Amino acid sequence: MISARWHACVLPVAMWALAMPVASQEPAQQAVRIGVILPQTIADPLQTAVIEAAAAGIAMAEEEFSFNAEMFGTEFAVTTIRSDDVVAAADQLVAEDHVLAVIGGYGTAEATALSQWAGGAGVPFINVGAESDTLRNELCGPSTFHVAPSAAMYLDAMAGWYVRAGFRRWYVVQADDAESASQHERMLWTLDQRFFGAEEVGSAVVAPGAGLSEDTIAQIRDSNADLVLLLTGANDQLAAVSALSAAGLEANVAGFPYAETQTRQFFAALEGATEKLGSNFRATAWEATLDAYGARELNARFRDLTGEPMEPSAWAAYQAIKLIYEAAFFSGGSDVASVVAYLNDPSSVFDVWKGIGTSFRPWDRQLRQPVYLVEINSAAEDAFSSAFLVGELPAIYMPGTDPLERLDQLGDLADRSTCQ
Amino acid sequence: MPALSQEENERIYVANEYNADISVIDSATDELIATIPISERPGEVRPRGMNVSPDGRIIYISVSDFNPTLEASEDKIVAIDVSTNEVLKEFRAGGNPERLDITPDGTQIWASLEATAQGAGYNVETGRQIATVRVGVEAEGVAISPDAKWVYVTAEATHTVTVIDREAGKALKHIIVGNRPRVVEFSPDGTRAYVTAEIGGSVSVIDTSTHTVIDTIDLGLDSRPVEIAVSPDGARLFVAGGGTSAVYVIDTATNTVTDTIREQMGRRPWGITINQAGTRVYTANGLSDSVSVIDTDCLCVIDNIAVGRGAHSVQVGRAPE
């Protein structure tokens, strides 16, 4: 049974006085309808933070793009379903709401199911929450487009920052699952092929929820690692940081940036250990203190609307709606085929407030984009100032280079892709 | 190379976004001759877009702050008398005004209100707001046609230009242009309007008789076009490529890029303007805190002048008599 559903069409926009639509250069479009699937059952407070931020991003996007659509005399609607049965929810969105695309993917399992569904339905699925490389490779779907950065992109960025900063001896803590094993393998490739001079000096596999054993902590100490990379879930990262701090370890600790670890709530949970361990740097897909490229305005609008910083999951959800909206408008056709064609077109340019025009990679349909390094501010007095931007990869200003090649410094290129 | 041949009755005015002041340059000597404070709170108060009264005697500056919320006490338009370099008047322009333009008769100012997605008209004499028109999200560029009939307002986030019937105070049409349009400028004869798209890397050419895009000039995805200066004869566009530290020269007869000026350009040229004779182009360089002076014959940078922090907008005004 599908439940917790809410549907919103064009609504009065308090911020801007409404007016009747006026003539536009483009012919009147058919309705643009977008579906969003959020999980219904959320057991973890960190995941709650991700989902609720995403919901807020959706609400803001709906408000703004309804405003935009009305300028052109077009109906715009976003329908959100909270459901754990994502396939049934997607079917319902298509059958009853005639959506042009479905947005979701909070977790690998959900994203995989929606990707497979999209391949059969022919309706684009916009993945905003799952970073698994399998979704971009052996499990890729012809109608799946990834807004969330891939694991490979994050690992390349993290290596870029840490190796260049002089952290050359890496100890890897891997979770006892296929996802983490894949990340570990990709990290080794990154160090071998893209960032010379760094090496893995040890590794351990830990079961989810088990924490670091005394033996593992001893191995980390004995390895003389200067960086401990945690390829584990968010709560396991918190537990590991606490254990390493209690043991008096001096190495820096970095964690794989799952969506939960990119939230202000996670940053607050790290606060107690950050100064001791040097684990106060995190990779993110978005940062609420970014103030260039129009990001100041986007962040400010979100803050005005919600009273909260724009979390990465809010940014991703907002951008997903924007991409579909633009695909419908710029392609000249509000039908699924036109939207898919526009998203697939390498010459389509998307502005996602990251200062550079971007597009989906033809080989795996991953959105090219920079990612950010933020520093957690342990002296923060509010959520907004609890982190601030300290790094960006790839650098978007590099005159004389090709912008797409610049962006493709992160993640897998076509020659490594197993996406068919 | 001294600029002795330049108009001695002109001054160059630069809005320094992070210094909260205006730099004044003598175009005859290319020397900084004055600094006009806008606020005693640099880094908080934010002067950006500027324009000049038709007689060149008043500089109007859109002022806001770095927290782009709906309303702030800093949101206003400031008028500076060039004969005294003092603030002549201020009037309220809530909603984070970013850029502005003045009607040919000097009686109205139209501004883009970034935070409220509006174009707004003001009576210059009284400072009273006379019209507000809904445009797209993150309004930025604003230009008034030479016949004063139309006001064009760009919207960064919506990728649109809204055509406003100025006398009616209403939107006539919305036009889709390239990604992240920044600035719009009319040709001297009013038959064309040119719109830069920073992310799209293009300039849209609009036929103003039909308010439709008739050509899109591709400068390259990494060109980052921002402001435009149109030569007095309308034959050339000079486009500031902010992130590339370049100026692109476009032939308007063919709508093609004919030259790219890079050598000795300041960093992040954002604002750009051309003098009345069309012999000099000036860019405001936000990362090198300078103004570059370009000779339009050799298409080369002949001088770089240090100004305040975050040079944003640059205009040519009349020198005191």
| Helix count from the secondary structure assignment of chain B | 0
CATH C-level of the largest domain in chain A: Alpha Beta
User: What is the string of helix and strand elements of chain A?
Assistant: EEEHEHEHEEHEHEHEHEHEHHHEEH
CATH architectural grouping of the largest domain in chain A = 3-Layer(aba) Sandwich
Structural class of chain B: mainly beta
Number of strands of chain A: 14
* Uncertain ranges of chain B: 1-5
Q: What fraction strand of chain B?
A: over 45%
Mean pLDDT of chain B: 93
Reading off the top of the CATH hierarchy, the class of chain B is best stated as Mainly Beta
Shape of chain B: globular
Roughly what percent helix of chain B?
under 10%
Distance between the termini of chain A: 34 Å
The major sheet of chain B is characterized as:
4 strands, antiparallel
Give the CATH H-level superfamily of the largest domain in chain A.
Response regulator
What composes the largest sheet of chain A?
6 strands, mixed
* Rg result of chain B: 18 Å
Per DSSP E runs of 2 or more residues, the count of β-strands of chain B stands at 28
Figure out the total of helices of chain A: 12
Protein name (chain B): Beta-propeller fold lactonase family protein
Organism (chain B): Devosia rhizoryzae
InterPro entries (chain B): Host-pathogen_enzymatic-act, Lactonase_7-beta_prop, N2O_reductase_N, WD40/YVTN_repeat-like_dom_sf, YVTN_b-propeller_repeat
Pfam families (chain B): Lactonase
